Every structure is written in structure tokens, then in C-alpha cells.
Amino acid sequence: MTLLQKEYNDVAYISGPLLFVNAASDLPNGSIVNIKDGQGKMRGGQVISVSDQNAVIQVFEETRGLDLANASVSLVEDVARLGVSKEMIGRRFDGLGRPMDGLPAVVAEKRLNINGQPMNPAARAKPEEFIQTGISTIDTQISLIRGQKLPIFSGSGLPHNELAAQIARQAKVPGHEGDFAVVFAAMGLTQREVSYFTQEFERTGALARSVLFLNKADDPAVERLLTPRMALTTAEYLAFEHGYHVLVILTDLTNYCEALREIGGAREEIPGRRGFPGYMYTDLANLYERAGVVNGKPGSVTQIPILSMPDDDITHPIPDLTGYITEGQIVVDRTLNAKGVFPPINPQPSLSRLQGNGIGKGKTRADHKNISDQLFAAYANGLDLRKLVAITGEDALTETDKLYLKFADDFEGYFIGQGDQDRSIEDSLTVAWGILSKLPQSQLTRISKDSIDKYYGTKMDEMWKGSRSMQ
After folding, report:
1. For residue range 200-247, what is the model confidence (pLDDT) as tens digits?
2. Beta partners for residue 58, in sequence order
3. How far apart are CA 230 and CA 183, in angstroms?
4. How many Å apart are CA 465 and CA 463, to the nearest integer?
5. Residues of 31-54 as b/e, b for ≥16 C-beta within 10 angstroms?
6. Helix (H, G, I), strand (E, B), or coil: what is residue 148?
7. Residue 162: in which H helix or E strand, if any?
8. Which residue range or ranges hold the ATPase F1/V1/A1 complex alpha/beta subunit N-terminal domain (predicted)?
9. What is the C-alpha separation between 363 and 129, in angstroms, rounded?
10. Where a domain ends, among 318, 335, 358?
11. Could you read off the pLDDT of 48-93 as tens digits, one per residue?
12. Which are the contacts of 302, defined by CB distance < 8 A and separation ≥ 6?
């Protein structure tokens, strides 16, 4: 496409990060522009709305000090694009895809529209291959399947950043370790968090198979809206052009949605629930639906979006809308975190709707599904008994009830609370059997007799025991 070599000088007014330009109806919607002020300083921007009256431009940098009388706008590119290359693996970029690791810019093999291309629903393959995260609670009870979108619901002050780094470090598709890559996009980070992720990826060697996009809290809000799209464009390129199985981790989607609300307010849009724009569902769907497996393509894109729920409210618009679009949720629990359990993932409100597709005989292990169900039931029973004990004390409990109470403690202490260990699915099932074997065989009603005969009485190795000893 031949771009218009034209300048637009009738800048009407500025509202926060938005610039309103009159007589610019021929600017393409979504195009990238340069804004030049009277001193010759250049700022970047993107056209987000065009009408007969004016064009609205989101400015990538600060608009403070921009003189309307001397400002001019010129077209750079017809649509926001990212130069992509396989050499991006092992690199760090800012939210706009500019290198921030001190190395030269990537030599682009292609320049792709960051909004992606619609995936033909008829071309989608059924997700049914297990991804091992190395975290027992996820792998055993909330299994992640290749091509799935499975969000993590957390809260303010909870260790979701540490959890994200652990997943990025440990995740793999068994049998495909060589062509597995992680695209990590973080939005609204403090400088301390930028340092943490940078050092963590470098210290553990995870950077060698990762592409990082880091958007800081003091960067313009509009950049936060582009960061996940940059990451997903990179992921789609690596997956469908080079055959990688790509895990995309997006954190924190709450910061993204708040930037969306800020931009909507500057555009004077009619707000929806809690001030968020009414199109937030569509906007989030545009991100989440860029995951999947395509027939005839060797690669895949799997997503783990992470969001912190304001006031731990799972009915808040951000987790609420996310739950409609995605295929389950992993819930980080404040009570478990207060006990010192890490990672503090509560399996009770958590769910993976695609788990059944990717586990079982020939995929993980034949007893996987039954173990998952039995752990869930036994833990629920133990939690109910804890509430009863708080009222009546332990004197009224049967011996079996006391075993369930002990099971709940062991489950939290040794199965959920694995710390920074990297457990294979075999290791996780071994720990599960070690804890379940403390219950009488008659209580294991969700497990087949063959599995009980084979695994009941499994002893946990010392390396799988937490800081407390099992009695």
C-alpha cells in the first residue's frame, strides 16, 4: 500500500493521551503516525477513530508540552505492525517491541499486523495434548492443555508474579522440549518488578527459550494496550511459521483493563460496569481467542492470562468477563498464602474445562483422572471437618474424621505447598498417592481397585516432603 505523504496541521485539542485532528478523514483507522511539535521533537501515535469531523490519535509518549499551534501529524504506516524474527527468542523488549536489553534491533523476517488474522473456526483442531507446568496442583487437578486459554485469578499482594516466573521456567510439552517457547508479556510493572523478572529469567536460564515484553507503570497507558498484541503476534509467528509450541503468559490483565478505562474516559465514552467501557468483553475476546491449535500446522499457542481481582472479588467485571471467554480458571488463595503455602493455588474454585481431553492412559497416566477426583473430594471433606471442629472441637470426631483432617493438612503442606520444586506429572502423582495412602482403602471410592492394588501404600520420597514431617 502506498502511504499518503501528507501532513495534518489542524490539531484541535488534547485530552489526556488523545490528540484530536481536524480535516483528517483520510487517515486510515489503526494507522501509525508521527506527531512533530514546534521544537522538532517527534512522538509516535496510533489512529483509533476517524470521522468526517476529526481523527482521534492515541499518543505513545507524554502529551505535556505539546504546542497545538505548531504541531503536525504525518502518516508512518497503514496499521500497527511488529517486525518479527526467530531471533527474538532470548531477547527483552519494551511494550512497543523496542529492544531494552542493550542489543541491536531485530532484523525482521516479516512485519505483521499486531491485531492478528482471524483464525478460521473450521481450521481449529481440538486441544488434547498435556502441558506440564511442574506445579502439582495445576498438572494433577487443573491440567493445562496445548491450545487452551487458562487464566490465573489472583489478588493484590499475592505472589502471582512468582507463580508466573515459575511456570515460565518449568513449563514443557513432554516429548517436544526442543520446540517449546515462552512469550512473556507484563503490563504496568514497577521498576522492582521489571528487575525481578529480568533477573529471574536470566538466573534460571529461562530467557534462552523466551521472548519478554515488559511495559512499565510509568509508560503511557496506550502502550499497555499494544503490549499483549505485540506478544501474541510474536507467539503466532513462532507457532505457525516455525512450528513452536508457544506458551503466552500475560500479566497483569487488570492493568490492561484499567488502561482501557482510562483511554475510554479520555474519549468521553459512555462507561459500563464500574466505569469500564462497554466493549471490554469484545476487546478481551480479541486477545484470548488468539490461542489454539490449527489443523495442518505443527505449532500451537496456549495462553495463561493473569489478573489480580480488585478486593478479591471474582464477580468484578474483569474476572467475570474473562471467565466467560476462557476455559476455566486457576485461583490463587489468600488464606493458603497466609499459611506460608507456595504456590497458594486453591483447587476447589479452580477448573480446567479441557482437562479431560489431555490426560489419562497414553497421555499422562491411566489413574490421573481418578486421582484428581479423589484428591478434590477428600480435601473438601477435610475442609468441612475443619469448620465443624471450630464449633464442636475434636472430641466428637471419629478416627476416620481425624484422618481426613490430617489429610487436609498434608495436602496443603506437601502437595500444594511444593515451593519452587519442578515436579513431573509422575512425581506429582507419587506425592498424591503418598498422601492418599494415609486414608483407609475403603475411603478411596473414586479410584479403581486395579489402581489401588498397584499404587496404594506408595511412600513419599524425602525430597517431596515439605518443611514439616509426615507422621
Report:
1. 999 999 999 999 999 999 888 888 999 999 999 999 999 999 999 999
2. 18, 46
3. 10
4. 6
5. bbbebbbeeeeebbbbbbebeeeb
6. coil
7. helix 160-170
8. 14-70
9. 7
10. 358
11. 888 888 899 988 888 877 888 888 898 888 888 999 999 999 999 9
12. 131, 144, 145, 146, 147, 148, 149, 150, 245, 246, 247, 248, 291
Domain interval for residue 110? 81-358
Q: Is the dihedral of CA 138, 133, 252, 235 positive or negative?
A: negative
How far is the CA of 7 from the CAs of 71, 86, 211, in angstroms?
10, 36, 36
**Same domain flag for 350 and 263:** yes
Looking only at the bridges linking them, the beta strands covering 18-22 and 180-189 are unpaired
For 95, 230, 239, 305, the CA distances from 90, given in Å and listed in that order, are 16, 16, 16, 21
Q: Are strands 292-294 and 300-309 parallel, antiparallel or unpaired?
A: antiparallel
For residue 356 the three cell numbers come to 479431560
Residues in a beta bridge with 245: 180, 300
Please give the span between the terminal C-alpha atoms of the chain, in angstroms, as a whole number.
Answer: 72
Task: Check: CB of residue 31 under 8 Å from CB of residue 75.
Answer: yes
Pair (56, 134) in one structural domain: no
User: Do 329 and 459 lie in a common domain?
Assistant: no
Region at 116 (left for phi over 0; alpha for psi -120 to 50; beta for the rest): left
Cα of 15 vs its chain's centroid, Å: 31
Overall number of domains in the chain:
3
CATH number for the domain spanning 395: value is 1.10.1140
Predicted pLDDT of residue 292? 93
Task: Please state, as a whole number, how many other Cβ atoms lie within 10 Å of the Cβ of residue 307.
Answer: 25
Dmax (CA) for the chain in angstroms is 85
